[in-house]
Design goal:
The chain has about 300 residues and is an alpha/beta fold. The protein has 6 helices and 17 strands. The strands form 4 sheets. Strands 1, 2, 3, 4, 5, 6 and 17 form a 7-stranded mixed β-sheet that branches. Strands 8-12-13-14 form a 4-stranded mixed β-sheet, with no helix packed on it. Strands 11-10-9-15 form a 4-stranded parallel β-sheet, with no helix packed on it. It catalyses: [thioredoxin]-dithiol + NADP(+) = [thioredoxin]-disulfide + NADPH + H(+).
Length: about 300
């Protein structure tokens, strides 16, 4: 890992150290490209929040997969400069190459870029069925299962992290009240048989401060602040600059500047899975490789 980028342009600048970005770095190294991988946290940070996976070859937990991915990236450190801890803030491109601006004020230059910044948790103010006058609760994937055991908790929305939490802790005595809109019905069906979940399909819900610092959830009762979580799905985390999003904020590859590739969950709301993200990152790196060969 390095603390500052090279002054010489890289063949490939990769933004995002999740499964797509890490796969891109490993693939780039395998075909002789020199790359920089920019990640604001640790490699595989999002993977480490997934306590159980059932669709990743060879791994049963996100943490185990993240450890393996990190080891693979470190193995190719001679070809890939890993820049951790400083977020990328802007991505720009022209016919000559790309520039990624960092929050530190530094700039990373390259011939091609892969944007693999993924998605973030949706906020209550982005859910049309919620009217909230309280601070945004944390996402469900940050919940401490042991601390929730035996407590009455409120989960706003029935997105898939709910099923992941239940599968990862089959013997934990959860008591989860889950109001959700009609759009989440097909996801709610995946957990409906679990006795630890009470589902409420509704059109609207108000969140308001209540006595003793609690949170009132319409007619569903009041809850301690540390037992309320959002589970409302995700929104794309696109960088400002050259990226060309669709109206929903996602950045499909076919809309981007020729020097900019997108990979992972940032591409589309469909196929947001670890395995598809990994494959798209590797494919994007190969795209850059062949483009560079053809331009020689």
């Amino acid at each position: 890992m390095v603390t500052r980028p090279s002054s010489t342009p890289y063949d490939l600048v990769i933004i995002g150290g999740g499964p797509a970005g890490c796969a891109a770095a490993v693939m780039a190294a395998s075909v002789g490209l020199r790359s920089a991988l920019i990640e604001r946290r640790e490699l595989g940070a999002t993977l480490r929040r997934v306590p159980a996976v059932g669709n990743v070859l060879g791994f049963a937990t996100g943490t185990a997969f993240a450890d393996a991915v990190t080891a693979d990236v470190l193995r190719v450190a001679d070809s890939c400069d890993v820049l951790l801890g400083t977020p990328a803030t802007e991505l720009h491109a022209d016919d000559e190459g790309v520039t990624v601006r960092l929050a530190s004020g530094a700039a990373v230059h390259g011939r091609y870029a892969i944007a693999a910044t993924g998605v973030r948790a949706a906020r209550p103010d982005e859910a049309g069925w919620l009217d909230s006058a309280v601070d945004a609760p944390p996402p469900l994937w940050e919940a401490d299962a042991a601390r929730l055991a035996g407590r009455h908790a409120l989960v706003l929305g029935a997105d898939r992290p709910l099923g992941t939490l239940l599968r990862a802790h089959p013997d934990t005595p959860f008591d989860l009240l889950v109001p959700h809109p009609a759009a989440d019905a097909y996801k709610a069906d995946e957990v409906r048989a679990d006795p630890r979940v009470t589902l409420h399909r509704l059109d609207a819900l108000d969140l308001r401060p209540a006595a003793e610092g609690r949170i009132a959830a319409g007619g569903l009762g009041t809850f301690a602040p540390d037992t309320v979580f959002v589970n409302l799905g995700v929104r794309p985390a696109a960088l400002p600059g050259i990226l060309a999003p669709t109206p929903d904020g996602y950045c499909p590859p076919d809309r981007q500047h020729p020097r900019v590739l997108t990979a992972g969950d940032l591409r589309s709301p469909r196929a947001q899975r670890i395995m598809t993200a990994t494959g798209s990152g590797a494919e994007a790196a190969l795209h850059a490789y062949y483009a560079l060969r053809l331009n020689h």
